[in-house]
C-alpha cells in the first residue's frame, strides 16, 4: 500500500496564493503595498496537486504534534518509533509499517546531521 507524504493542501501550486481584503490576489504578501491591509495565505483549490493516495495519518500526527521543551528531533522520533506507532491500535499493518519505515529513515538522516 502506498501513502502520500503530504496533505494535498500543502502541495498547492497557486501562483498567487495570498488573498487581500479587497479581493486582490498576490504572489507575495509584500506585493499588497497598502499600509494596514490584511493579506492572508489562501491558495485556490483549483491549483491543488492531484493525489491518488491519502496521506498516512500517523505521519500527519507526528508532524502536527508539538515538540516538548528541550526535546531533540532524535528523541521525538525515538519516542514515536518505540511507543506511539506500536500503541496506535487503530492503525492498519500497512500504515504502521509505512510510518515506521519513514521515521526510521528520518532518524538516520537526523543522526547524520548531528555527526556532521
What are the low-pLDDT stretches, counting only 5+ consecutive residues below 50? none
Number of separate helices: 3
Sheet with most strands: strand arrangement = 2-1-3
> What is the CA-CA span between the terminal residues?
34 Å
Order of helical and strand elements: EEEHHH
What share of the residues does DSSP label as strand, in percent? 5-15%
- Determine the mean pLDDT: 82
Shape: elongated
What class would the helix/strand composition place it in? mainly alpha
How would a textbook summarize the main sheet? 3 strands, antiparallel
Computed Rg: 19 Å
User: Considering DSSP H and I runs of 4 or more, what fraction of the residues is helical?
Assistant: 25-40%
- List the domain count as a whole number: 2
Per DSSP E runs of 2 or more residues, the count of β-strands stands at 3
Short recap of the structure:
By secondary structure, this protein is mainly alpha-helical.
List the helices and strands and how they pair.
Elements: E1 18-20, E2 25-26, E3 39-41, H1 57-64, H2 73-87, H3 93-115
Antiparallel strand pairs: 1-2, 1-3
Q: What would you say this structure looks like, in words?
A:
The structure is a single chain. This protein has 116 residues and is mainly α. The chain has 2 domains: 11-47; 57-115, no CATH class. It is built from 3 helices and 3 strands, in the order βββααα. It has helices spanning 57-64, 73-87, 93-115; strands at 18-20, 25-26, 39-41. Strands 2-1-3 form a 3-stranded antiparallel beta sheet, with no helix packed on it. A hairpin with a 4-residue loop joins β1 and β2. α2 packs antiparallel against α3 (93-115). The longest helix has 23 residues, at 93-115. The chain is elongated and about 50 Å long. The model has no long low-confidence stretch (mean pLDDT 82).
Amino acid at each position: 500500500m502506498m501513502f502520500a507524504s503530504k496533505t494535498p493542501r500543502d502541495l498547492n501550486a497557486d501562483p498567487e496564493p495570498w488573498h487581500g481584503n479587497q479581493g486582490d490576489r498576490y504572489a507575495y504578501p509584500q506585493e499588497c503595498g497598502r499600509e494596514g491591509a490584511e493579506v492572508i495565505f489562501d491558495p485556490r483549490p483549483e491549483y491543488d496537486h492531484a493525489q491518488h493516495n491519502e496521506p498516512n495519518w500517523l505521519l500527519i500526527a507526528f508532524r502536527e504534534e508539538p515538540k516538548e521543551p528541550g526535546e531533540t528531533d532524535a528523541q521525538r522520533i525515538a519516542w514515536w518509533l518505540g511507543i506511539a506507532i506500536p500503541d496506535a491500535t487503530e492503525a492498519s499493518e500497512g500504515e504502521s509499517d509505512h510510518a515506521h519505515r519513514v521515521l526510521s529513515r528520518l532518524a538516520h538522516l537526523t543522526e547524520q546531521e548531528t555527526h556532521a
